[in-house]
Design a protein that fits this description.
Layout (H helix, E strand, L loop, with lengths): L7 H12 L6 E3 L6 E9 L7 E6 L8 H5 L3 H7 L4 E10 L3 E4 L5 E4 L2 E10 H7 L6 E4 L2 E5 L4 E6 L5 E8 L25 E6 L4 E4 L7 E6 L5 E4 L11
Antiparallel strand pairs: 1-5, 2-3, 2-4, 3-7, 4-11, 5-9, 6-7, 8-14, 9-13, 10-11, 10-12, 11-15, 14-15
């Protein structure tokens, strides 16, 4: 699958061809608070063209934090013949509806069922998991935050707005949907970054479906909560 002289983008395209199930889509409602976790597999022939394919439990299974904690990344990497596996701990979605127009194969890791959902250059996968260091990931989907929902936003120094798409208690067990409005008090915000919450007066759609390249701009905070960016306003129907 991976040629020595392929670029990371060529390997992203090859991964989509390998893993996406033609015609398979996912459309789900009542998603706020939905529990999920992820496994990523790193493949490629050299650091410059390595990519990370992401499998997600949404719609496939509902593992407990204890089941996920029992996963062994080294064992998964060996069994799947990849350079490395990374584990994205149990977290909860914060949007209300999800639409995905490219969905991949199902796969089990130690008895937990996951579905392929995305791919990114491995350097991006690593960067995104560093606090306040945005990167891009390929996924053809949209998240909708409904009117009346409270959303949690990061304002970046360059003016881009990021909306919280999921939170985890893995690094701060005290976090819950009930106290996310105070999340800013817990964050080690770099200079120029700000946190705020807003109650929506209309639906907000956050989408890569109509974007060229279907690239989501993603960042994590220092507690590993994940946000998606407005990408200059192109990914949001409006800026809250």
């Amino acid at each position: 699958m991976f040629g020595l002289f392929r670029t990371a983008q060529e390997n992203v395209d090859a991964s989509r061809k390998e893993h996406v199930v033609p015609g398979k889509e996912s459309h789900m409602k009542d998603m706020r608070g939905y529990r999920f976790c992820e496994v990523g597999l790193i493949t490629g022939t050299r650091p410059g063209n390595a990519v990370g394919n992401v499998w997600n439990t949404t719609g496939a299974s509902d593992p407990t934090p204890e089941q996920f904690a029992a996963l062994d990344a080294d064992k998964i990497a060996k069994e799947n013949h990849v350079h490395k596996a990374w584990l994205n701990p149990v977290r909860r979605w914060m949007f209300d509806e999800m639409d995905a127009w490219e969905v991949g194969e199902d796969r089990e890791f130690d008895g937990i069922k996951f579905t392929w959902v995305a791919v990114a250059g491995a350097d991006t996968s690593k960067t995104v998991q560093q606090p306040f260091a945005p990167g891009h990931i390929y996924r053809n989907n949209a998240f909708t935050f409904k009117e009346g929902s409270e959303v949690y936003l990061l304002d970046a120094p360059d003016g881009e707005v990021f909306v919280l798409q999921s939170f985890t208690q893995a690094f701060d067990p005290s976090l819950s949907e009930d106290n996310l409005a105070e999340l800013g008090d817990k964050l080690d915000l770099p200079e120029g970054w700000a946190f705020r919450s807003e109650v929506l007066d209309r639906d907000l759609e956050v989408s890569t479906h109509k974007l060229s390249g279907h690239l989501a701009h993603i960042v994590q905070d220092n507690l590993h909560n994940t946000y998606q960016g407005s990408d200059g306003g192109k990914a949001f129907t409006y800026i809250p």
